[in-house]
Amino acid sequence: MITIEDIAHSLGMICRFGGHTPHLYSVGQHSLFVSNLIKSNGGSNLFRLHGLMHDASEAYIQDIIKPLKVILGDAYGEIEGRFMAVICEKFGLDLALMERVKPFDREALEVEHRFFFSTSTKGCNVDYGPQMSMQPDVCFDCFIAVFIELKGGES
């Protein structure tokens, strides 16, 4: 059974970049960051919700580092797609709108890379961004609060 609480808990516990960061930076925090980037660009609450949930499948199939995703090829994408379809149906999300999140996901990735793996951290001071370490319980609380806000009070 898929629940928002399971997704929020799991994403707050899964490290981005295979854990190769100087402090905990979770998929949940990344998802909050993406949703906030959409907000900063004038995105609607519905679009922000899609940003928040764009990696929700990783609560069940884990965050796979890019080199391994390339090796796995279409197989990983098919599995991820199946999970996302179920999650979208469960929470009333639109797979097509989920695709429009990708530029914001890439922007977040660029900021995260600059922060964690570059000598220049210019442009990294953003809400929920990588400059802060968010413990899993705090990430869970923030994820749930943002989800409820964006769903209009529904959980």
List the main descriptive attributes of the protein structure presented here.
single chain; mainly alpha
Explain this structure to me?
The protein has 155 residues and is an all-alpha fold. It has a single domain, classed as Orthogonal Bundle (Hypothetical protein af1432). Helix content is 63%, strand content 0%. The protein has helices at 4-13, 27-40, 45-53, 58-61, 66-72, 74-91, 95-99, 102-117, 136-150. The model has no long low-confidence stretch (mean pLDDT 91).
What is the compact description of this entry?
This protein has nine helices and no strands. The protein has 155 residues and is an all-alpha fold.
Q: Determine the structural class based on helices, strands and strand pairing.
A: mainly alpha
Quickly count the helices: 9
Helix content: 55-70%
CATH homologous superfamily caption: Hypothetical protein af1432
**Mean pLDDT across every amino acid position:** 91
- State the CATH class: Mainly Alpha
**CATH topology name:** Hypothetical protein af1432
Helix/strand layout:
Elements: H1 4-13, H2 27-40, H3 45-53, H4 58-61, H5 66-72, H6 74-91, H7 95-99, H8 102-117, H9 136-150
